[in-house]
From TrEMBL:
Pathway: Cofactor biosynthesis; coenzyme A biosynthesis
Source superkingdom: Eukaryota
Keyword Nuclease tagged: no
PANTHER family: BIFUNCTIONAL COENZYME A SYNTHASE-RELATED (PTHR10695:SF46), DEPHOSPHO-COA KINASE-RELATED (PTHR10695)
Protein name, per record: Dephospho-CoA kinase
GO biological process: coenzyme A biosynthetic process
Keywords: ATP-binding, Nucleotide-binding
GO molecular function, one term: ATP binding
Length: 212
């Protein structure tokens, strides 16, 4: 990342909503039962993952239960970063399209790789069987379809050096000067609008003798 930017992984918010005794935690336990809990009372994420990735109905149930908590958590973090003046906020959301959050982000960047490479990397990373890996991949929208919906595509099937070269190009692209619409949605634009309104009200009071 570059100065003025911030990477916010979606799992950061998911971890918070599943913390013990939170609203999301209580909803999930009520929906899936106490069998998904560890001895400490915390949610066993691995066990919950096996359940939802092998059963589409259970997966949809989990998404419905957690979606409001995850969305509100993400928007709260975005607000804090916006107030701090972050120029670029990168949301790392695997289920961006499924959660309908693509309407709130621009541009949409998809890191694409072919299915076989995706399968092998997932098995190696999480140390899971091929069946479990395929269940997880099939539980999400395919990368080929996401690629079509994206504004920018990064091809991750090559070397690390090739990936870094593509990343640098994307950083240059997203750090370009703001359009007028983007400016007014930025912190600087909002403050400019607020100051303009205050000046207008004060000037109106002096000119027309308006009592505030």
């Amino acid at each position: 990342m570059y100065p003025g930017s911030f990477l916010m992984p979606c799992w950061y918010c998911v971890q918070d909503v599943l913390k013990k005794d939170t609203g999301g935690y209580n909803k999930v336990v009520a929906a899936f039962g106490e069998d998904i809990l560890q001895a400490s009372g915390e949610v066993d994420r691995a066990k919950l993952g096996l359940i939802v990735f092998s059963d589409p109905a259970k997966r949809q149930l989990l998404n419905r239960v957690l979606a409001p908590y995850i969305s509100s958590g993400i928007f709260y973090e975005i607000l804090k970063l916006w107030l701090r003046g972050c120029k670029v906020i990168v949301l790392d959301i695997p289920l961006l399209f499924e959660a309908k959050m693509d309407k709130w982000t621009k541009p949409i960047i998809v890191v694409w790789v072919d299915t076989e490479t995706q399968l092998q990397r997932l098995m190696a990373r999480d140390r899971i069987s091929e069946e479990d890996a395929r269940n997880r991949i099939n539980a999400q929208m395919s990368l080929d379809l996401k690629r079509i919906k994206a504004d920018i595509v990064i091809d991750n099937s090559g070397s690390l050096e090739e990936l870094e070269a593509q990343f640098r190009k994307v950083v240059f692209q997203v750090s370009r000067p703001l359009t007028w619409t983007e400016f007014w949605l930025s912190r600087q634009g909002a403050f400019t609008a607020l100051i303009s309104i205050i000046i207008g009200v004060v000037a109106g009071k002096k000119v027309y003798g308006i009592s505030l």
